[in-house]
User: Fold this.
Amino acid sequence: MASFGDERTRAYAVLLFMPLFFSSNIVFGRAAVVEVEPWTLAFLRWSLTALILVPIAWKGLRVHWRLLLSQWETIGILGVLGMWICGALVYLALRHTSATNGTLIYASTPVVVILLEAIFRGRRISAREAFGVPLALAGVVAIVVEGSLEQLMALQFNWGDILFAICTLCWAIYSVVLKRPVFASVPTLSLFAAIAVAGALSLLPFTIWEIALVNDFPTSGSAWRSVATIVAFASLLAFGTYQYGVKVVGPSVTAVFMYLLPVYGVTLAIIFLGEQLQMFHVTGSLLVMGGVVLATFPIDLIRRSGRARQAANNSE
Assistant:
């Protein structure tokens, strides 16, 4: 029992850093797009990640190759959604908006997932979700229009923020598609490796076109350090720590730690990019996180934990 408790403690310590790794993609991506073109950056990120993942996940890929091959269309769609749109388009968006805006808009993903499941899978929306979803979406609108009613009425938006809103929707679709029962038997790392390969392949022709168009490929040490940082932190460590958390403490507890993503993302943007925190950021983030927590926080998990502690105390 003691060793299990120790491992849970280690898992909680690791999970404190997990949203930091995820948020690093937007922050370091914002710095990287100064030197590296968006599609090139996304391709380098996911091709290098795939090269690292495939040998590690080879056993699972070999065992489940027939299933994965039969689902090649779905895996291809996941690659486009997760790596092409939520890769290259994110980096393109970061050329037109701040990492702070992008992080806060992305934080609304859980409530978009709820809406998509309600629309396409008939999932019933609870009373908490009915209040939380519009609250979070109102926060996204506040960030996109920079808290200006005049800007909202005049329909003057930052295209970078609009792209981030599109990427948020696509990441939510990615999350819903990823939950398909057909993938239940495939190890998480093997499925992730297959999707990374599909994503890299979908990015390749656009990367070739981009390089031919701008006649530029990253050669400087700083550019490759940015790429390496994104591969190591935003890809391998982010997904690795998330999977470790799911394995040790379960998906519900692991998901709770994602509420720290805006805190880390905005803090990193202020420290490393010198971005300024504006009042509309504060207002929008409070609405987004308030709505997300209200709609998705696992209250049943807390109740079960409380009952388990009570049972343990009674047994003593």
User: Anything to note?
Assistant: The chain has one domain: 18-178+186-315. The radius of gyration is 20 Å. The CA atoms of residues 33 and 220 lie 13 Å apart.
